[in-house]
Amino acid sequence: MSNRLAGATSPYLLQHADNPVDWWEWGEEAFAEARERGVPVLVSVGYAACHWCHVMAHESFEDEETAAQMNAGFVCVKVDREERPDVDSVYMTATQALTGHGGWPMTVFTTPDGAPFYCGTYFPPRPHPQMPAFRQVLSAVSEAWATRREELEHAGTRIVEGISSRLDLGTPTPLSADLLDQAVARLADDADRRHGGFGGAPKFPPSMLLEFLLRAHARRGDQNTLGMAVHTAEAMARGGIYDQLAGGFARYAVDAGWVVPHFEKMLYDNALLLRVYSHLWRATGLDWARRVADETAGFLLRDLGTPEGGFASALDADTDGVEGLTYVWTPEQLVEVLGDDDGAWAAEVFTVTRSGTFEHGASTLQLLRDPDDADRLARVRAALAGARSRRPQPARDDKAVTAWNGLAIAALADHGALTGDAELVAAARRAAELLHDVHWVDGRLRRASRDGAVGAHAGVLEDYGDLAEGLLALHAATAEGRWLSWAGELLDVVATQFVAADGRWHDTAADAEALVHRPFDPADGPTPAGIAAAAGALVGYAALAGAPDHRARAEEALASLARLVGQAPRAAGWAAAVGEALLAGPLEVAVSGPAGAERNALAAAARASTSPGAVVVAGEPDEPGVPLLAQRPVVGGRPAAYVCRGFVCSAPVTDVSALSAAMTGPAS
Fold first, then answer.
1. How far apart are CA 121 and CA 112, in angstroms?
2. DSSP of 441-461
3. Residues 28 and 122 in one domain
4. pLDDT in tens, 378-391
């Protein structure tokens, strides 16, 4: 028998549709039911690829006795944090404030008006020394509600007041070179010199920080800044967090050395990392960086592409309830697939040991060095990938989230333009068309769709910022005016709905559903903070459209984040990266002329520039809807490149060497 979640569009909610728990989706109806019954609300938040969410579901939500206790004492609401990041943000802030930590599954008890009064994360079915059993928690909350309801309601009010106070970001200050240098120095202090990355275990891919370091190196020119980026990127690419057979990165490593991943693969991580490795290859020419970028792009298209043209959210951490089942190997399994000689060779190359690097004698695959025999490696990888494809596979969360598809569009368009891979640019275009046709409803974005049907939840700030970023990269790769035009519409909505009259930014629109607190988080998470994403898009739009007002808005947004950038750069990598683009101009290059080898050569030279935030468009002179090509004629019958910085332009050039000189020198 199914519960109310049977009609949900979220794959995570559908995973709970057969629970004996009488789940409600988030909405006023659930809270009205709680008011009518006079009981608290139990809000359970997670996502489809979350390992411990599955564990708690199997242990507690599928248990008849536990479900009966939940149904009797509470109105139970199940939330997909990926569809409702606003709800997740509000209650995660409360959970972290009350417990000092956060994570998923998140378990929050609220009043019938939504005010949280008790918060936690995973609760086991039986008590542990430091953790009560879930049913003990249910009993304690029910008893407290029955005997001390007024006290709990007062606590909820105080908690809402506490989480509603905004973080003091200090006096707005322009992001100067000195401030960004300070951020680099702080990152150097936190860098793990042995394993790469920043801080200790668990290790998450620091995508935004790597992009910042690459941009900072382009300005500073010092090898220490570049070295931090290269060391971390190579350690991840050679470790178990990277899929050595088929490409793509897992969510994080549980250890400091990137050996054992938490096996879910997220669209947002891989989109961000594709762009990082592409830019790292551009800056260094390192073969392994290009390989990882190509393989990650292949993973996006092959494993996350949807029939509608978008990209699915994630692959699960578990396979048949076992984490890592699809991915890990023993020496015996390698021999079984490859034979004795190749099996023993593969075990050495991929660090598959007798004792195992994971669990039960199995190992993740690492490629700590490139073997001398590249052909043998390719043959072995193909054979193992084929064998692995016949194993049980992890489930896929196939909803298409606007923001993360925007990140994928940016990465694919960027890498496709840089490498001349038209298939990647075409994939970016298909995803943009899906978002425009399905997610863009009455001039506003929706958060997600599934199977081509749009969901009901409104887009949040990161949806607008990340999608605008992707559309600008697609415009630059294709010289199609429609993408720049739509990006401008998105940024107009940002200005009217997400920035208040007093200049304060918010993560939800002014006319969005009112929660107990209107969230705003200036810090990066696994994706850029909404304000930083919007600022980056504003900078790019200003350069591509010749729009100084947009640049001014970006400068104001970034100035409000200056203290965070200088003092806690690990939380503000994308803001710092956008700051580097502002300092660099950013560089604008228009390559104008008929299609052909000459224009292609100029465009390739322009796209090879590592100048932070550079925008390059190549197309016919005066192409409609492409401001960068307006009044930019050919010169002497040949395609010409026009180089500008900050609305100041150099004389046009017609050969690659002159273009390279113009891009590295000041505008004149």
1. 20
2. ETTEEBSEEETTEE-SSBP-H
3. yes
4. 999 999 999 999 99
* Number of compact structural domains in the chain: 4
Whether residue 42 lies inside any domain: the answer is: yes
Q: What are phi and psi of 634, to 5 degrees?
A: -65, 160
Q: How far apart are CA 214 and CA 217, in angstroms?
A: 5
Residue 666: which pLDDT band, with cuts at 50, 70 and 90? low
Q: Give the integer Cα–Cα distance in Å for 580 and 587.
A: 11
Residues 297 and 417 in one domain: yes
CA–CA gap between residue 162 and residue 438 (Å, rounded): 38
pLDDT at position 665 is 66
Q: Which domain holds residue 383?
A: 327-391
Whether residues 591 and 522 fall in one domain:
no
Using a 10 angstrom Cβ sphere, with 0-12 exposed, 13-18 middle and 19 or more buried, the burial of residue 189 is exposed
d(CA 414, CA 192): 30
Which is nearest to 357 in space by CA: 329, 387, 392, 326? 329
586 preceded by a cis bond (ω within 30 of 0): yes
615 and 591 in contact (C-beta within 8 Å)?
no
> Is 511 found in the same domain as 420?
yes
Q: Chain-centre distance of CA 59, in angstroms?
A: 30
Q: How far apart are CA 362 and CA 342, in angstroms?
A: 18
pLDDT tens digits, 534-585? 999 999 999 999 999 999 999 999 999 999 999 999 999 999 999 999 999 9
- The pLDDT confidence band at residue 1, using thresholds 50, 70 and 90, is low
The pTM of this model reads: 0.95
